[in-house]
Amino acid sequence: MRRVPQGQRELIPVAGAIVALGLIFLGWILRLGMGPGRWAPWAVALLGLLMGMATVLGYRQEWKRLLRSRQAGFGAVTALSVVLVLGIFGVVNVLAARHLDVQYDLTQEKFFSLSEQTERVLAALNEPVHVIGFFTSDPSDVRHHDRMRAEQLLTLYRRTSRGRITFELVDPYLKPQLAQQYGVQYENLVVFQAGERRETTTNVSETDFTAALVRLTRAEPMVVYFLVGHDERLISDYSDPGYREAADALERLNYVVQELALREQNPVRVPEDAAAVVVAGPRLPFDASELAALEAYLRRGGRLLLLLDPPTDAQENLIRWLRRWGVQVGNDVVIDLLGYVQEPTIPVGQFLPHQITESFLRLRRSVPFRFTCSVEPVESVPKGLRVERLVQTNESQVAAWAETNLNAPPRLDPADRPGPIAFGVAVLQESDPGARLVVLGDSDFASNAFYRFGGGDFFVNIVNWLTLQEELIAIPPKDPSERVLRPVASRGEALTVIGVTMFFMPLVFTLIGLAVWWRRR
After folding, report:
1. Quick one: 183 and 320 in the same domain?
2. Is 286 helix (H, G, I), strand (E, B) or coil?
3. Which end of the chain has fewer beta carbons closer than 10 Å to its terminal beta carbon, N or C?
4. Mean pLDDT within 382-394
5. Cα(158)–Cα(118) distance, rounded to whole angstroms?
6. Which residues contact 101 (CB under 8 A, 6 or more apart)?
7. 66-101 core/surface letters (b: 16 or more CB in 10 A; e: else)
8. Rounded (5°) CA angle 57-58-60
9. How far apart are CA 129 and CA 196, in angstroms?
10. Sheet strands (E) in 73-186
11. What is the DSSP letter of 479?
């Protein structure tokens, strides 16, 4: 029998030890994936343990020679240095976590940061709020993930609020009396409490947590009326043209959303409790009594959001009335050849400086507006009014214009007005009673179809500005999106992914490194 060279015999125990450790590690991974009570993970780990013992006992001389060699001394020094460095970092990290209470979010979607709107809500808190989350404490329960996410979020709320938010997480099965006190009938209930007032939510997300805080801290809900009777978009409509998502967003911020038919009021009058009135895409004309009711509402300090759609020739009375408030609406379609989505008739608006658009400008957010007409200040704005442009096309005079021929393909003609073209304005009455009015040439941007493309955030910001809720004028929280190439279909695939990434690939690179070391020695 051919004798194994001495150099190769010294390599065998090292390779055997690496394989043994790999099998023990693989057994641990299998136990995590398959759960307790299965024999396969223990069998793999036992095989690794036996192989390690056989390697140590069968190659005692080689181990002694390796441990006494110069390479072993260098390796020991290197290993000790690595352990010391990791220990120093660990101690520094623990001390920072306990005493500094700071963290830096380097994720692309800022998963570990709160939104600007949440930060403003927390900054406006004038009393302490205690949060109790009822979650299972069993790590094997699939709902335990919600407990971990709630703890992460509430830690951010506590840190950002500088102690005004405190929280505790309770297992309702371990503390049944406390659960009964708060009326907990199921897990994943989060209770926000300030004094004797309570608000609850069953969803673990920043959106729902912030909405609960707004409902808790606002003295009483504000009523926002959506006008009906002119073929407007409906808040009860869940289809693409509807406004159900916009209504839900307002309700989360403690607004009460209701429909209002002015013609059915006796007398025709906007209710006294109206914090704002929204007119979303009317197609039928307004009569004189309705315009008089809107005029009286603004004269007593009302807030009105008017969203129009081209063509506007059916709204001659309404457009003529808007001129009194310094707003000029065109019977045209805005074209933008440089900034659009799919078609030049869907311009991506360029926001102009205003309290409503501040967060969009800072974060460089854009909103698509589908089939919009021009809306600009009149040449001579009435005294006492401040009319400001909110959004417009690009500034080119040849790549953007207001198309007046609605029955032909877009083309810049002498009859068309060249850009830049504004299609949204905000009106503020500078003297008492301080009426506010926002007019836009499109109502699609806040519909269910376009809501999640930024239009919904813009719509909510407008309503918050109209109702003087400045602390809420910001980009609201967004739940982080999952980035998954393909969902894992079975436990076997999950174990395969874990085994390849955490066991097989590290083992291969270790063996390659070991082979290179052996050849160079």
Report:
1. no
2. coil
3. N
4. 94
5. 12
6. 159
7. beeeeeeeeeeeeeeeeeeeeeeeeeeeeeeeeeee
8. 65
9. 11
10. 129-134, 165-170
11. P
Task: Quote the pLDDT of residue 471.
Answer: 74
| Omega before 433 within 30 of 0, i.e. cis | yes
The CATH number of residue 143's host domain is 3.40.30.10
Domain identity same for 345 and 394:
yes
For residue 384, being part of any structural domain is answered with: yes
Query: What is the number of residues in the chain?
Result: 521
How far apart are the C-alpha atoms of 418 and 404, rounded to whole Å?
11
How far from chain centre, in Å, is Cα 65? 60
Residue 311, preceding bond cis, omega within 30 degrees?
Answer: yes
Chain-centroid distance, C-alpha 302:
32
Q: Which residues 6+ apart lie within 8 Å of 514 measured at CB?
A: 11, 14, 15, 18
Give strand pairing partners of 440: 307, 424
Average pLDDT of span 348-362: 91
Q: Same domain for 89 and 167? A: no
Q: Is the pTM of this model over 0.70?
A: no
Q: How far apart are CA 55 and CA 22, in angstroms?
A: 14
Beta pairing partners, 170: 134
Model pLDDT for residues 172-228, shown as the tens digit of each residue: 888 888 888 888 877 788 999 988 888 888 888 888 898 888 888 876 889 999 999
Are 438 and 373 within 8 A, CB to CB?
no
Burial of 46 (0-12, 13-18, 19+ CB in 10 A): middle
CA–CA dist 286, 290 (Å, integer)? 6
SS3 assignment, position 298: helix
CA dist 501 and 259 (Å) reads: 57
Tell me, yes or no, whether 313 and 247 share the same domain.
Answer: yes
Structure tokens at 439: 């007019």
Q: Which residues pair with 190 in a beta bridge?
A: 133, 201
Residue 485 lies in a domain: no
Give the DSSP per-residue string, 426-447.
Answer: EEEE-STT--EEEEES-SGGGS
Token couple for 307? 């969203």
Inter-residue contact 274 to 242 (CB < 8 Å): no
For the stretch 469-483, pLDDT in tens is: 877 777 666 655 444
Instruction: Report the run of H or E that residue 520 belongs to, with start and end.
Output: helix 505-520
Confidence at residue 485, expressed as pLDDT on a 0 to 100 scale = 40
Tokens of 452: 């999640």
Q: List the beta bridge partners of residue 426.
A: 388, 438
- Residue with the two structure tokens 């074209």: 335
Look-up of token digits 């002119």: 230
Please give the tally of structural domains in the chain: 3
User: Which structural domain, as residue segments, surrounds residue 427?
Assistant: 222-478
Name which of 26-35, 94-103, 207-216, 405-414 the model is least confident about. 94-103
Q: Print burial letters for 205-223: b (CB count within 10 Å at least 16), e (below 16).
A: bbbbbbbbbbbbbeeebbb
